[in-house]
Amino acid sequence: MSPHTKLLTSMSLILGTTITISSNHWVMAWVGLEINTLAIIPLISKPHHPRAIEATIKYFLVQATASALLLFSSMTNAWSSGQWDITQMNHPISCLLLTAAIAMKLGLVPFHFWFPEVLQGAPLTTALLLSTLMKLPPLTILILTSHSLNPTLLTIMAVSSAAIGGWMGLNQTQTRKILAFSSISHLGWMTAIILYHPKLTLLTFYFYTMMTTTVFMTLNTTKSLNLQAMTTSWTKAPMLNTSLMLTLLSLAGLPPLTGFLPKWLILQELTNQELAPTATIIAMLSLLGLFFYLRLAYHSTITLPPNSTTHMKQWCTNNQTNTLTALLASSSALLLPLSPMIPTLL
Questions:
Q1: What is the Cα 242 distance to its own chain's centre?
Q2: What are the backbone dihedrals phi and psi of residue 85, each rounded to the nearest 5 degrees, phi first?
């Protein structure tokens, strides 16, 4: 990809995200989502591989359908109420269609089937964008309209996402698919609290973005696309793999690592809202995700005994660890002592 094309797509991604998260009008929010979709498509199809082209077509069809649903829901609401303001969603059918459109954009259950397949066909850097930056505009719309949506439907989708994300990730061997189901599970946690504490949803998204960026950048450095490649990745960057283990355990939500903080606050807020059954269910479902995180952490630090294999081991490689990766890895594991400052920020 030429530098001019890369600059154009990067600026379009930033522009589309900025337009959506700063707009109050439905048409402008839809325009920002469309700019984002059109900007990410060249990045997904960049390898010119049949799997990448398939992922591009799947992504385009799903996003186009979700955008049409979103525009139709906003038009139906404007027809009945005369309002194009995002926060003025009063029509029940419009709210239902909007919930389906945003769930399709984010990859929430039951509209999650496209997300692992698209991530598996995309390069690691593009998969990182799909898991983090591309989730921000739809999540912002969901936060702005959450007071108008059906709380029972959102809770069912949140619990189902936490369950499916943990359950389907158990039998995966491809790291991108594992991280896709991890994203679905974390989206379930964010959706569970979005009605009661929107700022906590954003905090959870920021922590998730930081930890997922660390994992993707580490996997990109060591070129680990599956569990078999992870077993020999310690020979390329031993210290980076050690930090990867801590980041994966932090994603699982184990104390005393950073990832424990948002889950702790979400469970506390759900209990305060007298939703202890929901808090108990999603806390137990997080154990499913803990299993495959532990498996990834084990594979990232395993040392193999001397044996004869058919593949080449890269014993002498010159992998320069990025300073940003090291900084993000440290933050992903060591930010829990800052938790007393969080209530003042929220």
A1: 23
A2: -75, 135
Q: What is the pLDDT of residue 325?
A: 81
Spatial neighbors of 252 by CB under 8 A, at least 6 apart, are: 259, 286, 289, 290, 293, 294
> Which among 247, 245, 239, 259 has a CA at the least distance from the CA of 322?
239
Is 201 within the bounds of a domain?
Answer: yes
Name residue 15's amino acid.
L
Strand, helix or coil for residue 162: helix
**The two structure tokens encoding residue 129:** 């964008």
Q: Which of 159, 180, 160 is nearest to 169 (CA)?
A: 180
> What is the token pair recorded at 323?
């300073």
* ∠ Cα 324 326 328 (to 5°): 65
Q: What is the pLDDT of residues 178-206, one digit of tens each?
A: 999 999 999 999 999 999 999 999 999 99
Q: How far apart are CA 87 and CA 283, in angstroms?
A: 31
b/e burial code for range 229-243 (CB count within 10 A of at least 16 → b): bbbbbbbbbeebbeb
Non-local (6+) Cβ contacts of 334 within 8 A are: 257, 258
Half-sphere exposure of 223 toward its Cβ, with a 13 Å CA cutoff? 8
Report the distance separating Cα 282 and Cα 12, nearest Å. Answer: 36
**How many structural domains is the chain composed of?**
2
> Does a structural domain hold residue 137?
no
Peptide bond into 110 cis (omega under 30): yes
* Local structure of residue 322 (DSSP, 8 states): P
* 170: phi then psi, degrees, rounded to nearest 5: -70, -35
* Rounded-to-integer distance, Cα 304 and Cα 344, Å: 48
How far is it, in rounded angstroms, from Cα 272 to Cα 256? Answer: 23
> Which positions of the chain have pLDDT values less than 50?
305-306
Distance CA 332, CA 293 (A): 15
- The residue range of the domain holding 52 is 1-123
Q: Are residues 310 and 178 in the same domain?
A: yes
